[in-house]
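Q: I'm writing up a methods section and want to include an example of the input and output format. Could you take the sequence below and give the corresponding predicted structure tokens, formatted cleanly so I can copy it straight into the document?
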Amino acid sequence: MPETVILCPVDELSSGQAKRFDVAGHRIALVRTGDEFHAVGDRCSHENYSLAEGEVWVDEREIECPRHGSTFDLCTGEPCSLPATHAVPVYEVTVADGNVSVILP
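A: Here is the clean output for your methods example:
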């Protein structure tokens, strides 16, 4: 059964920021682009490096792995550039009562 978990208050992240959360066995990069929040698996599919430490491309809704430069679509998890060729997990995000939550499978 899916589980909703609060990660942080909305104002904890500014647009263009990412932050790592370890929740119930899931390593998640929460990313803010404008007024939207996205949650993806925090391990680059190319070399297991933290995506939350990478640069957020707000207009493109992508995050760049700081290790080798692969970018990932924050909406689909699909890689947008090499060397990564596999998607990262994407989590559904909800915002309610001033908090950002993810729905875990």
